[in-house]
Amino acid sequence: MMSTSAKHALAALFIHSAPHQAKQYSFVDRIYRCLQASKDETSKYAVNNTIMNTTFMSMSTLRTEG
Predict the structure, then answer these.
(1) What's the domain of life for this entry (predicted)?
(2) SS3 17
(3) Could you report the average pLDDT of every consecutive run of 10 residues in the chain (66 residues)?
(4) Is 4 helix (H, G, I), strand (E, B) or coil?
């Protein structure tokens, strides 16, 4: 599992690398909403899966648009 600080660092990286892309703000917003929703270990596992899937999709978008 990624630590919370790793998730924040990943979010900051996306904001820094492509601040002009609205999709990146959507990605970061989804991370923070997921982090706020994670109260127990089961939901934290689901949150990590959601974040990793979103990260993969965002990176694919950056590759195709970049």
Answers:
(1) Eukaryota
(2) helix
(3) 65 60 61 64 65 62 51
(4) helix
